[in-house]
Amino acid sequence: MTSPFNEGQAHGAGFTLVEMLVVLAILSMVLAVSLPLAIRGGKGGALQADARIVAAKLRQARETALMTRRPTTVLINLTPAGVADAGGSILALQAARRVTVVTAKGVSEDRRAAIVFEPNGSSTGGDIQLSGDGHSTRVQVDWLTGAIIISGSR
Q1: Over the stretch 125-140, which tens digit does the pLDDT of each residue have?
Q2: What CATH number was assigned to the domain covering residues 46-151?
Q3: Which of 106, 128, 136, 151 sees the fewest Cβ atoms within 10 Å?
């Protein structure tokens, strides 16, 4: 004898308790691994954003030199931390408490360093280190190719 309540219902519809527990266990493991990474990344995230600003300004200058066929200069302000193009528009760096620059031309008396991009894509090269709150990030400019590389935060 069958129950009238079971006649129209499909068997196997829905999730079992074991399936739900497995899904919850997997989600808790993913959260346990990703949460510390997200917290650690948040502290150095602003410094990474500053490095991306510097790299974008450098890439823009390189492209300008290639398109106009004239050398283009980017100025790195050490105090206050900032980056400027030849036109003089300065972008302030928010998280960088200390900026160290090594270039072929060195640092001028007014605490600025210059990186020049040539019309053939090459540059004077340079190594820009941004530091703040126990983290540091480097933006490197290859002298031969003019390639700009951001290397990790620690």
Answers
A1: 999 999 888 888 999 9
A2: 3.55.40.10
A3: 106
